[in-house]
Design goal:
The complex is a heterodimer of chains A (502) and B (324).
Chain A (H helix, E strand, L loop, with lengths): L1 H14 L2 H19 L5 H12 L4 H26 L11 H9 L3 H35 L3 H18 L4 H15 L2 E2 L6 E2 L13 H19 L13 H4 L3 H6 L1 H15 L6 H15 L12 H16 L1 H7 L5 H12 L6 H5 L2 H31 L5 H20 L2 H20 L3 H24 L6 H4 L1 H31 L1
Antiparallel strand pairs in A: 1-2
Helix pairs in contact in A: 1-18, 2-4, 2-18, 3-4, 3-16, 4-5, 4-6, 4-14, 4-16, 4-18, 5-6, 6-12, 6-14, 6-15, 6-18, 7-8, 7-13, 7-21, 7-23, 8-21, 9-19, 9-20, 9-21, 12-13, 12-14, 13-14, 19-20
Chain B lengths: L1 H14 L1 H4 L13 E5 L6 H17 L3 E5 L6 H8 L7 E5 L2 H8 L11 E17 L7 H9 L5 E4 L5 H13 L4 E4 L3 H10 L4 E5 H9 L3 E6 L25 E9 L4 H15 L2 H9 L3 E2 L4 H22 L5
Helix pairs in contact in B: 3-10, 5-12, 7-12
The chains are: A mainly alpha (502), B alpha/beta (324).
């Protein structure tokens, strides 16, 4: 315990050095804006900042880059709520209840509460890092292809829960997502699928392109075709408007707590990440809620849970990177690269020989999150004022931002055409009452599931028994089975009551 | 930022390009920002290397050098784009072994690794390393080979189909004359995670990808794929030394311009590159990424490219690997 306190004090010394606070501020501010801009993610931003870090102290460099990384999670939810346009893919799920809240004229409340959820989620994530880093690293190593497959399967079953309205339509969207996910080079065999000989499709459809089209562009079409009631959605920004109703206040803490814990666990697994964390926590809340029918029409739980989960995951994602030297994503690989260019290697070397840097970084997460909260709450006024811009101008600007953002991902003009195509498809879905969220879940989980299943089968020589011999995998599969039975039971009850009523 | 510069650079190249593309203007090169295309997404080691090179060239040439990522199709999209770019020295490409591997791997690519480019210089060489999970109790490469040959643990992991590490494994099977089971992962991080967790008993990785895990005793180093031992891990033997004579996989990193770029301009870039590569600071940054900094003349580099294309075509053909 004394040891831990000494480490924290050591870290605080580094994190609170004036220059480091400054770099932290630069990082989180850049992160917020990059999160707000659709398409442009932390990956692009951090790679641009990399050369600057050559001239910085290693601690300052890594504190700044990390700030961009978790700062983007704050920014990502802002356009999700205001415009149904996810700034980062992990905040796509926040659209589901955030945008309806905004349409009800409660955008400033939603923004305020997600900022709080983000802060609390990060806090839990940081605490998890301080107390359980070695333990969580061990936990991550217990995850082989069998466990990943089981978790993905559970996630897919949860996808059926996420859709509001018709379960059949939700399942159809999941299936479509799975199909779209097969486009590209198969990881296990190198076979090209549905690429039609186009180089641009060899790596599959980009998640950002799909999400921007289905959510952002589709929404622009929808708003243009269906001018809203001028009285609706008028934004008022005063302190009062920012505060939730008492009942909403009461329903917020539990989702934040569950979301943060789930996010911390999922984030520590290399290769799942914030997006999966956000979706799982949304599904979990809807499952345990006593009023699941409210989800999708502005339920506070529907924004609190995913935003706390993705922020917690953004913090614990540093655990496999720093403790094991295993980056969970390209962005983490870049941050690790920045360390290595300075001659610092991760693992126990970082925690022992460079403990000042390790603990300094963790303590800087606190500093960064406090700065983010202080930065974000006053900005709410400005963001909400955006809704007052005349529709014609605002929507032209949105389309421009989407095109620029999507183009920067791969520098591929074809991606812009894809966004347009997905936008048209998304508009058609919207008219027909199909929701894009389950499609995204299928699209994200499908390829990972297939890859893990085939790796599992390869390594066990085709033996399915390994799935139930391994304890974590068996537990997750049991939960998945129980969930399936529960959902089927609910459907039966619903059908029967409809019959008796009819 | 990057986008803005890229737009500026590409617009400029449309407007001014035609005027400046002649050799007579070489003494004025460069008059506007130079773009180095990286045919991969940010986050990889080639991307990080390109950013070091861009930074160094900027200082030497007195002109902004920007990195533009054109990822996709294992590097084919970016390399094709540069093969077809205006040969005026304002569009360069930093390639990895994909340049020499892809033509055989993909069956057909829309560039010719030898004819489409004007090589400038080798930039770095990157050894790969064969490592085993520490928990399986294998101490040396020979021991591991015996256990693999007996069919007890024939699996090895790599970051993916057609990567230099995958080919290093296939080359091992070829040289040791045993049959191995390749377990491809989706990237370097997941592959190393699989090795550390023990899902695959052994695997190939870039050196920096497993350095800390070796230091922490999670992975046992078995052999290095280049002909020289690595400075970072001097106690680890090369494959050549353990009896697989001539075994070599070098993950090349090099800078190229489109073919027909005036020789004078290639010379200016080459000299600038050599100049900053000679500084100790650059060397240590590049070494931090696990690379060995190397420079060569354009002619030497061209010869090496031709040799490696030949070599990989044989190995890939023999192992029957393909992406199509």
């Amino acid at each position: 315990m004394d040891n831990l306190l000494a480490s924290l004090a050591l870290g605080a010394g580094t994190a609170l050095a004036l220059s480091n606070v400054l770099y932290c501020f630069l990082g989180v501010m850049a992160g917020t804006f990059i999160g707000v801009l659709p398409g442009i993610g932390p990956l692009a931003a951090i790679s641009m900042l990399l050369p600057i870090t050559f001239y910085l102290e290693p601690a300052a460099a890594i504190i700044m880059l990390a700030g961009v990384y978790y700062g983007a999670e704050y920014g990502g939810s802002i356009t999700s709520i205001l415009l149904n346009l996810p700034g980062t893919t992990s905040s796509a799920v926040t659209c589901l209840d955030g945008y309806p809240l905004s349409q009800q004229g409660r955008a400033s409340m939603a923004l305020f509460m997600t900022a709080m959820a983000s802060f609390l989620g990060s806090t839990v994530g940081i605490l998890a890092m301080i107390l359980f880093s070695p333990l969580l690293a061990r936990f991550a190593l217990d995850f082989g292809p069998w466990e990943y497959f089981s978790v993905m399967l559970l996630g897919l079953i949860c996808a059926a829960v996420i859709a509001s309205g018709s379960a059949i339509k939700g399942l159809m969207m999941v299936a479509l997502g799975l199909l779209l996910g097969t486009v590209g080079t198969d990881v296990n065999s190198g076979t090209l699928r549905y690429t039609f000989g186009m180089y641009e499709l060899f790596d599959g459809i980009d998640l950002i392109v799909l999400a921007m089209g289905l959510f952002g562009i589709a929404e622009v079409f929808f708003v243009l075709r269906h001018p809203a009631d001028p009285k609706a959605g008028v934004a008022r920004v005063s302190l009062r408007e920012m505060l939730p109703h008492r009942s909403e206040m009461r329903r917020s803490p539990a989702p934040v707590l569950r979301g943060s814990i789930l996010g911390s666990l999922v984030g520590a697994l290399p290769g799942t990440g914030q997006t999966v964390a956000a979706y799982l926590s949304y599904a979990l809340e809807k499952l345990v809620s006593r009023r699941p029918e409210k989800f999708g029409s502005g339920a506070i739980e529907g924004i609190m849970a995913p935003e706390s989960a993705n922020n917690a995951a953004a913090q614990t994602a540093f655990i496999p990177t720093l403790v094991l030297g295993i980056p969970g994503s390209a962005t983490m690989a870049l941050i690790l690269g920045a360390l290595m260019i300075h001659g610092i290697s991760p693992g126990s070397a970082l925690m022992n020989e460079n403990s000042e840097l390790f603990w300094g970084l963790i303590m800087s997460f606190w500093v960064g999150n406090v700065l983010l909260l202080v930065l974000n709450v006053p900005l709410i006024r400005i963001w909400v004022a955006m809704l007052g811009i005349r529709r014609e101008i605002l929507h032209v600007a949105i389309v421009c931002f989407i095109c620029v953002g999507v183009y920067t991902v791969n520098h591929s003009p074809l991606d812009i055409l894809f966004v347009l195509a997905f936008g048209i498809v998304g508009y058609a879905f919207k008219l027909a009452g199909f929701q894009p969220a389950p499609l995204l879940v299928g699209f994200i989980l499908g390829p990972m599931m297939e890859e893990q299943l085939r790796r599992a089968m390869l390594l066990s020589g085709g033996d399915l028994g390994r799935f139930i011999e391994r304890p974590i995998s068996a537990t997750v599969l049991a939960i998945a089975l129980a969930l399936t039975l529960l959902l089927m039971g609910r459907q039966l009850v619903a059908l029967r009551s409809r019959k008796t009523n009819g | 930022m990057k986008f803005k510069h890229w737009i500026v650079a590409s617009t400029m190249s449309l407007v001014v390009g035609g005027l400046t593309a002649s050799a007579a203007h070489a003494q004025h090169y460069p008059q506007r920002p130079v773009t180095i295309v990286v045919p991969f997404a940010p986050g990889g080691s080639t991307d990080a290397l390109a950013r070091i090179v861009a930074e160094g060239l900027s200082n030497e040439l007195g002109q902004r050098v920007v990195v533009a990522n054109r990822p996709g199709a294992g590097g084919n999209i970016g390399m094709t784009a540069v093969a077809n770019a205006r040969p005026d020295g304002y569009t360069l490409v930093l390639v990895s072994s994909s340049l020499v591997i892809n033509p055989s791997l993909y069956g057909s690519v829309s560039y010719d690794p030898v004819e489409s480019f004007a090589p400038i210089s080798y930039v770095a060489s990157a050894p790969s390393i064969w490592v085993a999970n520490a928990g399986i109790g294998v101490e040396s490469a020979q021991e591991m080979l015996e256990r693999m040959a007996s069919g007890e643990m024939p699996y090895y992991g790599s970051p993916g189909i057609g990567t230099a590490q995958h080919l290093a494994g296939e080359l091992l099977a070829h040289y040791a004359d045993i049959s191995l089971e390749h377990v491809p992962y989706n990237g370097a991080g997941p592959a190393v995670a699989g090795m550390v967790a023990g899902d695959v008993p052994s695997g190939f990785s870039s050196l920096p990808g497993v350095q800390s895990q070796i230091d922490d005793g999670l992975l046992t180093p078995l052999a290095i794929t280049t002909l020289q031992r690595s400075e970072q891990l001097p106690e680890v033997p090369t494959f050549d030394e353990i009896g697989l004579e001539g075994y070599e996989v070098d993950h090349l990193q090099g800078l190229l311009a489109p073919s027909d770029t005036p020789e004078e301009i290639v010379g200016i870039i080459h000299d600038a590159l050599v100049e900053f590569m000679n500084s100790a600071e650059t060397s240590s940054r590049i070494a931090g990424l696990g690379f060995v900094p190397v420079v060569s003349t354009p002619r030497e580099f061209a010869e090496q490219i031709a040799e490696q294309v030949e070599k990989w075509s044989e190995i890939i053909g023999a192992a029957g690997i393909s992406v199509q």
